[in-house]
Known about the structure:
9 strands, 5 helices, seven-stranded mixed β-sheet, binds S-adenosylmethionine, methyltransferase, alpha/beta, Rossmann fold, 167 residues, two-stranded antiparallel sheet, transferase
Amino acid sequence: MLQYLILELEMVFSWLNLLAKCGFSNITGIDYSPSAIQLSKSVTKKEGLCNIELKVEDFLNLSNKVSGFHICVDKGTFDAISLSPDNSLGKRKQYVKSLSRVLKRKGFFLITSCNWTKEELLNEFSEGFELYEELPTPKFSFGGRSGNSVAVLVLQKIQDFSLDQFS
Length: 167
Ligand SMILES: C[S@@+](CC[C@H](N)C(=O)[O-])C[C@H]1O[C@@H](n2cnc3c(N)ncnc32)[C@H](O)[C@@H]1O
């Protein structure tokens, strides 16, 4: 049975609710904000979604209880961590390390980012992950150039994170 880890709470309509409504089970949602977890609990309860486990967890400092997932979904959390004014690079590296720890080998990571381009994301996750698929997103043009306002990528874990990659 597939295990899902969701890093994108705080929204009434989210991947978390969508997967649960589509009948998927073994879904775990985490956020380091107790109020985000509380809000998600009240939304999922109101919608009668009982196949979701919600936990207060800091993704950069995870407890041992969070591991063994086949799929991890993030919308906005990597972006929020990237915008940290304090040691953004170190936190991003810790994020990749945590992601590698929670995912099984060959596991998938679905990321939606409004801050990073496809190329930048591939660079951020180059240690241990490779592109599986890019999902289509709206395009816009400005000054003769075109681009996407949001990037949605599916990455696959190809190897475990090595501590050597931090040195
Ligand atoms: C920009 S919000 C995204 C919310 C929602 N998914 C959306 O798309 O609007 C970022 C979320 O990441 C959570 N977050 C930030 N850093 C985190 C961390 N280290 N561990 C767990 N959650 C974190 C915040 O509490 C917040 O709920």
